[in-house]
TrEMBL record:
CDD domains: POD-like_MBL-fold (cd07724), RHOD (cd00158). This is MBL fold metallo-hydrolase. Keywords: Hydrolase, Metal-binding. GO terms for biological process: glutathione metabolic process; hydrogen sulfide metabolic process. The lineage of its organism: Bacteria, Pseudomonadati, Bacteroidota, Flavobacteriia, Flavobacteriales. Residues 270-361, 375-463 form the Rhodanese domain.
Length: 471
């Protein structure tokens, strides 16, 4: 069977391309649809269907642009109620893609409309399942997201639906089927996903905690709901965009790809409703940046942190990027629904420097300097990693203020004595540094290389603590 996984690591997302006999289908495509269109053209195929496993929370899907540009039919599973033209399939309904069959299996639980698509080849053999967020490798979809959009759909109700969907629809399928999930490790749509992005269903039955055959419904609900963290704040906003519709990416690109001179950029940036977003790497941002900029580097989980930290999804954004990275920045903003980039600094930060404009910097220190300071009782260490990372291992006496909580905990940062920031490797702590700078704090330093460098450098090793033991 010709099925291709198209994986985007920065948001841990998998779309799927299916083609046979000149017809193609996409499953859970991203917002930027041109690569899918180009892929179909390479096969001399027409995109016939866009299958959606559910209304996604962690990204804005490309279904509407694919339907508009390619004439493809958008398909959702039972109970879906989108505000645009789509085919709402019935349970067990079959669709033809060339000589292949795509069979609808309604599997509510992650959301009410969640659907798994069973792939059947030209010989009638069942090949695999596009499982969306119903079944991941090593995990299943969290059932607590829909209630942020529909209050009556509680996590307990959906967890119980998911228990029955897995046992009545998924676990009854043949062991040799390939599982093709919508996400891998790093996604906030589950809690313990594997780094692997496909597996056999048979192996998942043996290794996935949620598929234990002797599990009662109550045991399943308890294990599934235990340890769930608060979902990112942008998730409900993305769900609504996927339900209600959105502006074409072409229009968003046209608005955002506006090259601004230094003077134009400065004038617009002085408006209170405009945010300067600098997408350069942490080390370059630290050496110099436009005052009041927020730094979220493209090289890591850019879209996730944009969604987590920029509270207004309609925020007007001015971009500072490396020359040539403007389009990528706009596309990656749009993946999570931030469609209001209004231009970028032509020539990047160098243009600002060459114009002799005011800049700010972030002081950075090496791990050995931090250790020396702590030996002399000269610095407070604030660790901005997730609580789970901090609890697993951290520097003794460090204070944990996770990055996504900083804006609500600014009063906990000292204003009259120096402190030091660290995360795992320096990416998140520089985001934190930019937020603190925006709020008038400058009495801090950032550890180059973060906790990983502190561990390598520290002597003695008892500088660290993890649960119940000293390393």
């Amino acid at each position: 069977m010709k099925i291709e996984q198209i994986y985007t690591g920065c948001i841990a997302h998998a779309a799927y391309y299916l083609e046979n006999n000149g017809e193609a289908a996409l499953f859970d495509p991203l917002r930027e649809v041109q690569p899918y269109i180009d892929r179909a053209k390479k096969d001399n195929a027409k995109i016939k269907y866009v299958f959606e496993t559910h209304f996604h929370a962690d990204f804005v899907s490309g279904h509407l642009d694919l339907a508009k540009k390619e004439g493809a039919t958008i398909v959702y599973g039972p109970t879906a109620k989108p505000n645009f033209n789509a085919l709402i399939a019935e349970d067990n309904q079959e669709f033809k893609v060339g000589n292949y069959i795509v069979k609808v299996l309604h599997t509510p639980g992650h959301t009410l409309e969640s659907t798994t698509y069973l792939l059947i080849d030209e010989n009638g053999k069942e090949h695999g399942i596009i499982s969306g967020d119903t079944l991941f490798i090593g995990d299943v979809g969290r059932p607590d997201l829909a209630q942020h959009v529909i209050a009556d759909l509680t996590e307990d109700k959906l967890a119980r639906m998911l228990y029955h969907s897995l046992r009545n629809k998924i676990m009854t399928l043949p062991d040799d089927l390939i599982v093709y999930p919508n996400h891998g490790a790093g996604s906030a749509c589950g809690k313990m996903m594997s780094k692997e992005t496909t597996d056999t269903l048979g192996n998942q039955k043996k290794t996935n905690y949620a598929l234990r055959p002797d599990m009662t419904e109550d045991e399943f609900v308890n294990e599934l709901l235990t340890g769930l963290t608060t979902p990112p704040s942008y998730f409900p906003k993305n769900v609504l965009m996927n339900i209600q519709g959105y502006e074409s990416l072409d229009s968003i690109m046209e608005r955002g790809k506006k090259a601004l001179t230094v003077e134009e950029f400065q004038t617009i940036s002085e408006n209170n409703d405009v945010l300067i977003l600098d997408t350069r790497k942490a080390e370059d941002f630290a050496k110099g940046f436009i005052p009041n900029s927020l730094n979220i580097g493209l090289e890591s989980n850019f879209a996730m942190w944009v969604g987590e930290l920029i509270t207004d999804i309609k925020q007007k954004i001015l971009l500072v990027t490396y020359p040539g990275k403007e389009e990528e920045s706009i596309i990656r903003l749009s993946r999570v629904g931030y469609d209001h980039a209004i231009g970028y600094l032509d020539g990047g930060f160098d243009a600002w420097i060459n114009a002799n404009k005011k800049i700010d910097v972030v002081n950075r220190i090496y791990a050995k300097d931090l250790i020396q300071q702590r030996e002399n009782n000269q610095s407070l260490l604030i660790d901005v990693r997730k609580k789970s990372e901090f609890n697993a291992e951290h520097v003794i006496d460090a204070i944990n203020i996770p990055l996504n909580e900083i804006s609500n905990r600014l009063s906990e940062f000292p204003k009259n004595k120096p402190f030091v920031l660290n995360c795992a490797g320096g990416y998140r702590s520089m985001i934190a540094a930019s937020i603190l700078k925006q709020n008038g704090l400058s009495n801090f330093s950032d550890v180059i290389g973060g906790f990983s460098e502190i561990k390598k450098t520290a002597v003695p090793t008892t500088e660290f603590v993890c649960p119940s033991t000293l390393l």
